[in-house]
Amino acid sequence: MAKENYTKYVLLGLITTNCRSGYAIKQIIDNSISHFWKISYGQIYPNLKKLVDDGLAVVEDTSQEGKPDKKEYFITDAGREELQRWLQQPIEEIPTVKNELLLKLYFSRHQPTEIAIEQVRFYQVELASRLKTYEQIERVIQNTGEGTEDAMYWLITLDYGLRTTRAMVEWCEDTIKKLREK
Amino acid sequence: MAKENYTKYVLLGLITTNCRSGYAIKQIIDNSISHFWKISYGQIYPNLKKLVDDGLAVVEDTSQEGKPDKKEYFITDAGREELQRWLQQPIEEIPTVKNELLLKLYFSRHQPTEIAIEQVRFYQVELASRLKTYEQIERVIQNTGEGTEDAMYWLITLDYGLRTTRAMVEWCEDTIKKLREK
DNA sequence: GAACGCATGTAACCTGTTACATGATTGT
DNA sequence: ACAATCATGTAACAGGTTACATGCGTTC
After folding, report:
1. B67/D5 CA-to-C1' distance in Å
2. Is the domain of B22 the same as that of B55?
3. What pLDDT was estimated at residue A146?
4. Residue B54 belongs to domain with CATH number
5. Domain that holds residue A139
6. Between chains, do B88 and A115 touch, taking CB under 8 Å as contact?
7. Which end of chain B has fewer CB atoms within 10 angstroms, the N or the C?
8. pTM for this structure?
9. For the Transcription regulator PadR C-terminal domain, which residue ranges apply (chains A, B) (predicted)?
10. DSSP for A4-36?
11. Residue A106 and residue B158: Cα distance in Å, rounded?
12. Rounded to the nearest 10 degrees, what angle do helices B6-14 and B77-88 cross at?
């Protein structure tokens, strides 16, 4: 099966959520979905243009009060069809992360144990802080969006982040113990 | 902080583990560390050459009986220093996976719930199979390498995979329930 | 007029995969 | 002759980041 260009679908999907300009898309990505998807301006703007070229979206110049002009993108029927097709298609692959910490641990045999412990501890601190952010966001969604279907899917993706992160934190704790006892 | 070229360190690290040729490196990656790191021949061979150019490794032509010739790479003192430096340096970033399933769920608001459930179920099946592989490998290591320090670090990285994958499987179960009850 | 947020854009670069080409050696 | 495994390599392409350039509008 040919590999899909995901960026296309991210943009297509986001402009259906009232997130219509390149800038707004970048904002929502950084604030809401960055825990499972990231994207840079260098990808956003050229690809938005491409959506229009491919007839999947149309663009409209909008002037706002108190802010610079912006370009608003709207999905077309063809775009909606394309997005739907992709959403209904089974996922192609389960992600395999490149994990710098595990790589370092894998080669730590000939290193002082101290250093490995230090690495894991640092990782743990970062994860704990990430966890706090997730928990905070969860509370916000539960308070504001309660009941809406949007909120449901948002909470589901967030829950994924919460659970996997918690598992990682626990692994850190136990790994540090193991290394100490060595 | 400047971003490191991890491939370099993977190769440098692997040639210290008696994994000396491009082919052997590819094998060990596919069989042992692919759950946290992947790499293709298109990266391996040019980068091995680069290690030599940079004085971090030396290469030696070796002829074997019953098999074609191969090139064996050995780390130099400079290479060992460079590897050590990297291993002791704090990790730069916690990985953020691009997760196709979460992306699709995020945009599933306007889709029939059936489809979302189907996607999650498929993901769950894949994860379950991955989990079985991990558990099998774990048993093999515990039986053969017991006690050696190599085995310890191997088990630690594997444990990471086991725990996070288990958390994901549980998330799948609960998410399917949630979607059904909707 | 400086700083800041909003907004769009791109060129240079880096990383990495895919697909292909090549060939040795062994076993059937 | 051929398939399979071992072994090395590269060119074309795809995907993505970084760093920069540009400019509007508001606030201090």
Report:
1. 9
2. yes
3. 65
4. 1.10.10.10
5. 100-181
6. yes
7. N
8. 0.94
9. 97-180
10. P-HHHHHHHHHGGGT--SHHHHHHHIIIIITTT
11. 10
12. 120
Residue B93 is predicted with a pLDDT of 80
Q: How many domains does chain A have?
A: 2
| 8 Å CB contact between B134 and B35 | yes
Q: Summarize pLDDT for B107-155 with one digit per residue, the tens.
A: 999 899 999 999 999 999 999 999 999 999 999 888 886 667 778 999 9
Q: Are residues A26 and A70 in the same domain?
A: yes
Cβ of residue A42 near strand C, that is under 7 Å?
yes
b or e along B22-37 (b: 16 or more beta carbons within 10 Å of the residue's beta carbon)?
bbbbbeebeebbebbb
| C-alpha separations of A91 from A54, A94, A120, A161, B145 in Å | 23, 8, 32, 19, 37
* B113 min Cα distance to partner chain A (Å): 11
In a domain, A93, yes or no: no
Tokens of B89: 């340096």
Kindly provide the b/e burial profile for residues B109-143, where b requires at least 16 CB atoms within 10 angstroms of the residue's own CB: bebeeebbbebbbebbebbeebbeebeebbeebee
Q: CA of A71 to nearest chain B CA: how many angstroms apart? A: 22
Q: What is the pLDDT of residue A90?
A: 92
User: Does residue B95 form part of some domain?
Assistant: no
pLDDT digits (tens, 9 = 90+) for B29-55: 999 999 999 999 999 999 999 999 999
pLDDT greater than 70 at residue B176 = yes
Of B157, B164, B174, Cβ closest to residue A106:
B157
Q: pLDDT tens digits for chain A (182 residues)?
A: 567 899 999 999 999 999 999 999 999 999 999 999 999 999 999 999 999 999 999 999 999 999 999 999 999 999 999 999 999 999 988 888 899 999 999 999 989 999 999 999 999 999 999 999 999 999 988 888 666 777 899 999 999 999 999 999 999 999 999 999 98
Q: Which of A162, A168, A134, A37 is nearest to B174 (CA)?
A: A162
Same domain? For B17 and B61 the reply is yes
Nearest to A87 by CA among A10, A2, A29: A10
